[in-house]
Amino acid sequence: MTDPLAGAAAGELLKGALEIIRSGYEFRPTLERSRETFDSLSSRVQKIKQLNRNLDSSTEEIDKLEALVRDGKELIDKYSKVTWWRFLCFPCYQCKLKASEDALTRHTTTIEPVHIRLGMMEIQSGIKIILQTLLMSGKENIGGAIEEPECIGMEQHLNKLKIELLKDGMSVLVLTGLPGSGKTTLAKKICWDTDIKGKFGVNIFVTVSKTPNLKSIVGTVFHGCRRPVPEFQSDDDAINRLSALLLSVGGNDKNPILLVLDDVWPGSEALVDKFTVQIPYYKILVTSRVAYPRFGTKILLGQLDHNQAVALFAHYAKLNDNSPYMPEEDLLHEIVRRCMGSPLVLKVTAGSLCGQPFEMWEKKKDRLQNQSKMEFSQTDLFCHLQQSLDALEDEFHINEKVCFMDLGLFPEDQRIPVPALIDMWAELYQLNNDGSKAMAIIHYLTTRNLINFIVTRKVAKDEDKYYNNHFVILHDLLRELAIRQSTEKPFEQDRLIIDITGNDFPEWWVGENQQGTIGQMFPCFSRMIRQKQLKVAARILCISTDETFNSDWRDMKPYNTEVLILNLHSSQYSLPCFTKKMKKLKVLIVTNYGFHRSEIKKFELLGSLSNLKRIRLEKVSVPSLCELKNLQKLSLRMCNTRQAFENCSIQISNAMPCLEEMSIDYCNDLITLPDGLCEISPLKKLSITNCHKLSALPQGIGKLENLEVLRLCSCSDLLEMPNSFEGLNKLSCLDISDCVSLTKLPDDIGELKKLKKLYMKGSKLGELPYSVHKFEQFKHEINVICDEETVTLWENFRAFPNLKIEIFREDIDLNWLHGVHS
After folding, report:
1. End-to-end CA distance of the chain
2. Which residues form the signal peptide (predicted)?
3. Distance CA 238, CA 219 (A)
4. How far apart, in Å, are the Cα atoms of 268 and each of 274, 288, 761?
């Protein structure tokens, strides 16, 4: 008879044996699955570690993950060497492998979140590199993108240019023609061509201009190659580094380079030579008013033929079947003929007639000279353009003409920030402070094709009157025209424009100036006479200096100056000593056009100017604040602010007690705002945008009882907002768009009785505070502008009759990240 206990024991033994056999069969598949898992994670972990270093992020979490992956791989390597006769140990080995996998699962849940995190960090790292490049380059937008232009009537030239560029071999191609013949338009258009972008892995557009700065041009090439811009010690150092750069990023058939040197002026042939580095698969396209025959291949842009000219004119005059005023065909063709095939003249003339009645077309025809000669000179160009400018005055658009002339105050080939124009025109011509009238003038000049108007990024509605991403671009020839209007009688006109190269001041400023025999015999008397006579009557004084200027200013007496514009390139810059004599000064605009920030000295001179209302500083290190008792607006763009805000001995509320508006944009060293800012009770608008290191707002921000607009968009490190918002009784607009680290709104946001607009596109809020329910009690409409992800937070509040939810879809063009730069 069989013992039941023995039978049970035998059964358990058999069951255990079967489990060992089953584990033996499953061990190898488990081992291979574990190997795939750990190998897949290992490469991702290393990449995340590198990205962590790039982003200056904490490594504690990833170090734990790395240790788990390392231990798992060691276990797998060890068990891979186990022979089959040790199968009795397989269950033990499999348990250890399972324990290793479980530990990994607890840390990451699944592989996919790690993959997602890797992708997000790659995006973050890329964004950081882009932002750093933008800050170093000084091209706003400004990241340096060039807009794709329209190229109507010039298709034949475009195709010819494309064929030449696609040919093999190193070459310099010169695109030449009169000013306004379309050289820059073609050069920009070719950079957008699909075949050209497919051929050239690196595609860089650089504007040279009349007074080229070699270091800045080379810096733009570095920027175009997505490399940090070094601080060049000399022009030779810049060229040496350029050669090394081009060799490292291109010079092979897989990554050919196209460099466009646009607007190379006569006499700059030697500059082009410096860029002709002898490497294969490298082409240079030069646009110039001269042909430079020794560079070989050239394309001459002549006048458009009549059919091409009519097509271009009709486009810019908006002539179609729906046009309210359609001219007779003979009149149209006669006006086009009198524009002599010049694209610029055709464009401006068409703009002046767009939407105009028959009588204006007849008047324009009579004004335009009946050109019988075949060739069209630069003098003819100015004559035609001057007529379009004079027409503004005839049509009672005198303000528009005056404002157009002000555009010549800014450097050639540079974007002109609209906020700078608003500051000037508000004080000079009593236009309203919100910029709406200034924008009306800008739009009018745009419709007349006298200027180009661009918006680099739309973050708010136009009616919010936020213009930090709005710029004006002026054609070189039209800029020359604006300057001519201002410099015919420099000491009697409203504008005085001074360009200083090196330390060579204009002769009328420091020269002997024909002071006579006494002045020649006694230089001291000559200096006394000059200084006595050198009184500046202009309301606007604009001074441009290059990188070699040493700030050794000569004296003058600008007693009537109301606007001072300083355009600079140097790393150190002192305000002119005569600044303290500008008792009527209302607006100061200081812009550094170099690649690296400039240190400003003698800022304290501004403390004695009681009428100074607006200061705009761009790409400078803001010095310690001085007392600016009547300052109403301070704008800082791409500046270092630490010395002014953190290391200043004077409280900001004491320095600027009357401040009504502060705008801080792309100031990447800004971590916190000074607490004293909350003591400036007149403050109405506070805009802190694209300041990616800003982590917190002052706790006392609720003291700003007159604050109407608080804009914090694209402050990616902003973690929280203080719960003191109930004191902001007049706040009507709050913008937290793209504040990706902000997880919640202030608990007391429902106490903002005047709130009308809440921008929260791109935010990562987890929930809305309970006080949002109070919005239903407001008697006015509240607009919430958000994206498709954020709109889900508002589902429970859609029933509020006064709540309007709008989904904002931003159209961001990233084509320029693939090689098109300026």
Report:
1. 99
2. none
3. 8
4. 10, 10, 48
- Separation CA 178–CA 810 (nearest Å): 39
CA gap 451, 317 in Å, rounded: 15
Enter the CATH code of domain 639-812. Answer: 3.80.10.10
- Cα separation, 741 vs 761, whole angstroms: 13
DSSP 8-state class, residue 650: S
Task: Check: CB of residue 782 under 8 Å from CB of residue 802.
Answer: yes
Nearest CA among 243, 268, 271 for reference residue 257: 243
d(CA 729, CA 713): 21
- Please compute the mean of the pLDDT values over residues 53-80 and round it to a whole number: 64
What CATH number belongs to 155-301?
A: 3.40.50.300
Which one is the CATH code of 304-375: 3.40.50.11060, 3.10.450.540, 1.10.8.430, 1.10.1240.10?
1.10.8.430
CATH architecture assignment, domain 397-488: Orthogonal Bundle (1.10)
Q: Which two tokens stand for residue 47?
A: 């990449």
Give the tens place of pLDDT for each residue, 595-629. 889 999 999 999 999 999 999 999 999 988 889 99
- Bigger pLDDT: 180 or 37? 180
Instruction: Please state, in angstroms and rounded to a whole number, the distance separating the CA atoms of residues 771 and 29.
Output: 56
Which DSSP symbol is given to 554?
P
Which one of 200-214, 226-240, 563-577 scores highest in mean pLDDT? 563-577
Percent of the chain topping pLDDT 90: 39
Evaluate the CA torsion angle 99, 102, 104, 107 in order and state its sign. Answer: negative
| Whole-number pLDDT of residue 240 | 92
**Which pLDDT score, from 0 to 100, does residue 821 have?**
32
Beta-strand pair 470-473/452-455: antiparallel
Predicted confidence (pLDDT) per residue in 740-788, tens digit: 899 889 999 999 999 999 999 888 888 899 999 999 889 899 999 998 8
Instruction: Give the angle 233-239-244 at the CA atoms, nearest 5°.
Output: 105
Burial of 239 (0-12, 13-18, 19+ CB in 10 A): middle
Domain with CATH 1.10.8.430 in the chain: 304-375
Strand 661-665 and strand 685-689: the pairing is parallel
Separation between Cα atoms, residue 232 and residue 224, nearest integer Å:
17
